[in-house]
Design goal:
The complex is a heterodimer of chains A (246) and B (107). By secondary structure, chain A is mostly helical. Chain A is built from twelve helices and no strands. Chain B is flat, with a radius of gyration of 20 Å. The chains are: A mainly alpha (246), B mainly alpha (107).
Chain lengths: 246, 107
Amino acid sequence: MSSVAPTKTAPTKTARDEFWDGVKDETPLMLGVFPFGMVFGVLGIEAGLEPLVVMAMSIIVFGGASQVVFAQMASAGASGLVITGTVGIINLRHALYSATMTQYIEGLPMRWRVLLAYLLTDEAFFVTLNRMQTKPPSPFMHYHMLGTGGLLWVMWQISTAIGVGLGELIPDSLNLGFAIPLTFMAITLPQITSIPPLVALLVAGTVAILGQDLPWNIWVIAAGLVGMIAGYCAELILAKKKGDAA
Amino acid sequence: MIGSDVIWLVMVASGLLTFAARFSMIGLFQDRELPQIIKQILTYVAPSVLAAIIIPDVLLIDGAVTVLDNPKIPAFLLAMVAAALTRNVLVTISTGMIALWIITAWI
């Protein structure tokens, strides 16, 4: 031990610390993700897809909600073009995550950017975003995303395989799909600390419901965008009111 | 049902589109800063996008808004209370799932 006086700032986290923090932060969400992966596995087989196709989809697409829609549309006889277009539009929201995440990974080499982009799912992104926003920056903070995304990836593959294997042994009456809105709510609720995010939430939810009949599942990205803009407008209006009152 | 050879093509195309969305800004904005207004708007990504996923999931049954006879709503509200009280993801998910099972078994 050196006799140097303790500094006030915490020591910078190493790459290993960041990675394991990511794994640890992501772990509780597995209670929601794991059943969802199983639901997708069961659904894929019920939709008439081959087991290998179902498993490969979890690697190639790696996006839960869009995989469920893929399987449903395939069994309903939709054309390949419509399926691809719908998956693309459902996952367009990830471009918003991409724009957010790029602010925190300045200067990272391309191979890292490709890897993190592949791992940029809802559940990994929001957990790592929380780390980026609430803890001091470190040169290795991209390892946090490797931890959240890596754990999610492994668990998604395992739970898909279990769903494919168990199939009908998992009764519909368990409603395992309900674990997903619960998981997302657990992430969202702590973020609603003022009026503007609440406005964003309510407006996005309303647009999502009203837009259900729009083609290509366009309501996901439409609701997301309109909600974000509504939140920003609420912020401006509140700031102006505060300014007027002063 | 699409043929089993075409399905691979559809899957790879879907995967590429998904990756393109995820890579887009991470790839494009390596050294350039995003405009301030975009950054501000992006701070609302979590409540907006997550609400867009959560709210239809809870309110819709077979594609129709269902308020009465929808066991997901009371289960979800109970889970919200658990989330507010504990701020714990495990407790939140467990509360919601168990509440749903109890309510559906009851009715």
